[in-house]
Amino acid sequence: VTVLESQYKQDPTNTVLLTKALELSLEIGDLELSRRFVKMIEENKPYSKKDASLIARYYYINQDVPKSYKSLSYVDESIKTKDENTVKYFELTSDLGWYLQRNEDAALASKHLLEINKARLVDYERISFVYQKSDPKLAVNAIKRAYQEYKLSYLFYSYANSAINNKNYKELNEVVQSIDVSSPLQKEALFW
């Protein structure tokens, strides 16, 4: 870590060294060292999604959830990042936003994950909950995809209810017809 810091002092334009130093200091659990790197990176706002995720993690570890969430908003969208950093960024934004009851922001981050095919179960649920009135088609499609991916009965019933409410009978029929006869869902009384 100290090698990375000394290299950064020789070349202050190479902020990747700070990112690596922060990542390593967090991994070894040195919060004092991490704090120093967080301050250095924060001086150069806006920053990458990877930096934002690391800084948010630092504040989360220090039990400052609002500051953790706020640090995610200082991202420079023009900085290209690897998919894994984008995924971590949107997952953190969704999770922390939901925790802070900023449900629309959390669902928007979950929607970004859905668009890049990296949505988790909780992302599908957030989208279907938040968008059920403002964008019912998106909500129905999210819960349908969740059912198709996870095969959980409550997801099917949520999808079926939403499809009926939105008069998507044909699509619902196609999903029902696609359910395998060996599926546990077929054995549930509510299914019939």
Task: Please give a structural write-up.
By secondary structure, the chain is mainly alpha-helical. 69% of the residues lie in helices and 0% in strands. Helix 2 runs antiparallel to helix 3 (31-42). It is elongated. The N and C termini lie far apart (61 Å).
Supply database-style keywords.
single chain; 192 residues; mainly alpha; 0% strand
* Radius of gyration using CA atoms only: 21 Å
Number of strands: 0
Mean pLDDT value: 90
How far apart are the termini?
61 Å
User: Which regions contain 5 or more consecutive residues with pLDDT less than 50?
Assistant: none
Number of helices: 11
Strand content: under 5%
Describe the biggest sheet? none
Shape: elongated
- Kindly state the percentage of residues in helix: 55-70%
Q: Which structural class fits the helix and strand makeup?
A: mainly alpha
Q: Encode the helix/strand succession as letters.
A: HHHHHHHHHHH
